Amino acid sequence: MKSKTRLGKGLEALISTPVDQITPKMRKTLHEIDVALVDPNPFQPRMEMDQDAFEELKKSVREKGIIQPVAVRPSSNGRFQLIAGERRLKAAIAVGLKGIPAYILNVSSDEDMLEMALIENVQREHLNPIDLANGYQRLIDEVHLTQEEVAEKIGKDRATVANIIRLLKLPEKIQDSLKKGEIKEGHARAILGLTDPNNQLELWKKTIKNSYSVRKVEEEVKKWRDGSPHHHLQKMARKKSPLISRTENNLREKFGTQVKVRTKRDGGAIEIFFYSREDLDRLLELFDEIKV
Questions:
Q1: Which of 12, 119, 166, 252 has the most Cβ atoms closer than 10 angstroms to its Cβ?
Q2: Which of 12, 56, 63, 86 is catalytic?
Q3: Residue 29, domain member (yes or no)
Q4: Measured at the alpha carbon of residue 69, what is the angle toward residues 90 and 43, in degrees to the nearest 5?
Q5: 86 tagged catalytic
Q6: Distance (Å, whole) CA 175 – CA 139
Q7: pLDDT (tens digit, 9 = 90+) per residue, 237-288?
């Protein structure tokens, strides 16, 4: 498989550079083009657009114009196809601009265009966790990148990418709830501690109804796995030091699962929980990547 590193970094260099820092060589690719000649990006990964944020963008464009150029590729009959900058293009059209600054890039394949659009989107836009997970998954399925390659291109670690993608295993109702902001990503990741979708949905409903905190959801998951979903008589856990609690939280974030640090007089143990063979395989992959 050919290397994809150049595309992600190249697009970042073009799109992230402030206008006053564009080099003469880069200016050769910057043009003012007619907005009526720009067709939408068929690979646009954004699922929903924040209307309030879009209204703010329109106001900014109306007052100051388009500060950050869009990126396009030549199409046919003198037209262009948008690579990145959907919101900027729509805002320009909405406020009545006839032209828009654009980088005209020579992108020959649909696969390369998909990669550039996805990477630009997940790097620059405020996506909800589910849209972000879908973006990562499309890079894997359609551009044929590994999770490690996705992580490298977007500047994240492999565990972060893996944990985001795991959210796609949740029932659709829970995914929609996360997209709407009814629950947070921490709630969703805690619910993944249950493997049965029916149990996941039941806990999700309780979380919404009772406004559970993330920690409370984790406690409910543990009680469910212990076979006592209605229990209120669990023995009080021994009070942990702030250092141990922070360590457990950091490890939970790293591995995307429940982690317990147990200390003794002369040592202790770290317990990392898994709840299915698939979950174990995921953790083993993460362990393989740890450099010692």
A1: 119
A2: 86
A3: yes
A4: 55
A5: yes
A6: 20
A7: 455 678 888 888 888 888 888 888 888 767 788 888 877 777 787 888 787 7
